[in-house]
Amino acid sequence: MKLWAGRFQKETDSAVNDFNSSIAFDARMYRQDITGSIAHATMLGEQGIIEAHEAEKIIEGLKAILVDIEEGNVEFTVDMEDIHMNIESLLTSRIGQTGKRLHTARSRNDQVAVDFRMYVREEIQDIIKIILDFETILVKKAKAHVSTLLPGYTHLQRAQPSTLGHHLMAYANMLKRDVTRLEDCLERMNECPLGAGALATTTYPIDRTRTAELLGFSKPTDNSLDSVSDRDFAIEFLCACSILMMHLSRFAEEIILWCSWEFKYVELDDAYSTGSSIMPQKKNPDVAELVRGKTGRVYGSLITLLTVMKGIPLAYNKDMQEDKECVFDAIDTVKMCLPVFAAMIDTMNVKPENMRRSAMDGCFINATDCADYLVKKGLPFREAYMVVGKLVHTCIEKGEKLDTLSLEEFQEVSDCFHEDIYQALYMNNCVNGRKAIGGPARTEVNRQIAAIEAFVAERT
Q1: Which residues have a Cβ under 8 Å from the Cβ of 218 and sit 6 or more positions away?
Q2: In terms of C-beta density within 10 A (0-12 exposed, 13-18 middle, 19 or more buried), how is residue 423 classed?
Q3: Cβ of 115: how many Cβ atoms within 10 Å?
């Protein structure tokens, strides 16, 4: 018999049963559901709403069910609809009438709200740990390549000199923001909805502060209507996951380019590459491509939940059952992508000579440095810009590079040029002269590395 039976005179149609049921996906919240129920039973006993011995019996029964579930000795049923009713039904079958007292002063609305928050809360902490592990890999790789010359790009055109260490620190800073976004989400969601009831709390003398404390929440939620109808925490989490995946996707795109023969900046380890069924020479960056592709999947989860929630009046509506599958899928996707992507980066073989050759190969990425040289000699920047533009045009016509022009050729366009122009155009000097905060100079990249190391150390 359904736990909500009484008013109904007919059995639920089997198709409606299947359609209505959520046990196929919300079963993964069994631990949170039991933990929340133990806290609720504890509070009921302490408040004298049920007898102390009844609370103890319920708690022992729930602990035993948890052990049996984790040992694979429990089979959930669609007839009981969801994880909450499955566990309550199982409890009642084991300890008798006392089990029916567990649901006193509680609704499935606040029950699922607290279960879901606890589940997402735990997963956020796991994801943060995985991101921090990735940060450590990026730091290690950046340390090894602080001085590895790399052309920086805008519009996918070689633009200014940089280093691989500087480039990797850009992604390290993106991941740092991902961590702090998830931490912010965690802080905002850490309020306990248990005790909100169906929508208007209860007439029983419950202690919501006590259950919040038992479940590790900072405080109870402030409004019972909002408590059961709020899924902002899940939407915010999915937004943070989407931004995280966007960062991985951008990195993946660069790795895909870099390991192509056209770039050949890196070679992926065999363990993180695949081959072709027909072309024996191929080595494909499938890990990076899959991460790029799965990003859309996480975006889809965010759009799903935003769409579910956009037209729902207060308070709980059955539409909200659709909140979990998209969140669960996003969690699974992020936790699948992060470790394998990090391992791919950790094991990839960098080709410094190819990066340097690309930076030096007649693409004029030291042109801005040439203009800056003239400014330091007293020329206004816009005038210096025009002078260097003419020099670049001359180089293109003659098949030269800026640093292969003769001093006479420099002085034909400006008498501000002297012998020290060649030092100003030397790529390593161009990089290490960029000492402003955030720049690619060796000293500055080392500072950035130390900052990320400190960030990770504070959280591990």
Answers
A1: 190, 191, 212
A2: exposed
A3: 27
Tokens encoding 82: 């969801």
Chain segment 165-212, per-residue pLDDT in tens: 999 999 999 999 999 999 999 999 999 999 999 999 999 999 999 999
Helices and strands of the chain, counted as H and E runs = 19, 6
**What is the C-alpha to C-alpha distance for residues 101 and 205, in angstroms, rounded to an integer?**
15
Enumerate the H helices of 147-231 as residue ranges. 164-189, 208-214, 224-229
Residue 261: which residues within 8 A CB-CB, separation 6 or more?
Answer: none
Q: Give the pTM.
A: 0.94
* 256's tokens: 């895909």
Structure-block tokens of residue 109: 């609305």
* 82, 27 Cβ separation under 8 angstroms: no
The residues annotated as belonging to the active site are 155, 276
- DSSP state letters, 316-344: --GGGGGHHHHHHHHHHHHHHHHHHHHHH
- The residue length of the chain stands at 460
| DSSP three-state, residue 159 | strand
CA distance 196 to 48: 19
Phi/psi for 169 (5° steps) reads -70, -25
Domain 366-439 has CATH 1.10.10.60: no
The CATH number that domain 15-104 falls under is 1.10.275.10
The domain defined by 109-357 folds into Fumarase C; Chain A, domain 2 (1.20.200)
190-229 b/e (C-beta count within 10 Å ≥ 16 → b): bbbbbbbbebebbeeebbbebbbbbbebeebbeebebbbb
pLDDT, mean over the chain: 95
**Where do we find the tokens 């070679």?**
267
Q: Return d(Cα 24, Cα 189) in angstroms, integer.
A: 25
Q: Which residue has the tokens 């029950």?
A: 111
Q: For the chain, what are the domain ranges?
A: 15-104, 109-357, 366-439
